[in-house]
Amino acid sequence: MDNYRLSEQDRATLQYRVTTKLREVILRGEFEDGERLVQEEWAEKLGVSRMPIREALKQLEVEGLVRIEPRRGAIVTPISVEDIEEIYQLRALLEGEAVEKSLPNLSKEHIEDLENICEQMKDLEVNEHSVAEFMRLNENFHKILYEGCTWRRIHGLIETLWKGIPPYTPSLLTNHLDESHQEHRLMLEYVKQNESEKLKEVVQKHILRTRDNLIKYVVKSKKQES
């Protein structure tokens, strides 16, 4: 419970590490819903100034894990298993539909971009730096897949669902990065083969597998803290 202090090596990626640490603490259930996250206390626990804590809270507010209130500061609103189920089930439905409609409109350049992303993912070694890069590549890969969908409203709905925990799940599920990469390779192959139904199916399975693993992570973390 008290071993939060970051090492000197961690401080090389200070902002990322502070945000990741606070995200993990919230998802582990160390805060009650509605409890204050006091900047001064966590700055001391992590051995940092208040500035990276303040910046981390801004990011966590975007993710829906805290809300910033006047005179009260950061109030924790931890994501629940039900929230995860809702977000990822909707993502599977919408992104599956979007990639199926997108495929006929993907260009040679789109396919080359997907290929390049897969190659970059393959070359990453799992560490704090590579996980941050994997998150960026993962989000770009998914966006390219459904970029060709001509349904305007579905893009807005998907973007809303991505404004939260989804972009950051690789930082929590590092043991599953290889599996995720293999699924991305399979998506790329179906794009090249122009197999829209198979592409839709693997995208949905990929999202739902992530949902299941994230739920296991949250449940296990809360049990360890109880």
Automatic annotation (TrEMBL):
Gene3D superfamilies: GntR ligand-binding domain-like, Winged helix-like DNA-binding domain superfamily/Winged helix DNA-binding domain. It comes from the Bacteria. SUPFAM superfamilies: GntR ligand-binding domain-like (SSF48008), Winged helix' DNA-binding domain (SSF46785). Pfam families: FCD (PF07729), GntR (PF00392). Residues 12-79 form the HTH gntR-type domain. Keywords: DNA-binding, Transcription, Transcription regulation. One of its GO terms (molecular function) is DNA binding. This is GntR family transcriptional regulator. The lineage of its organism: Bacteria, Bacillati, Bacillota, Bacilli, Bacillales.
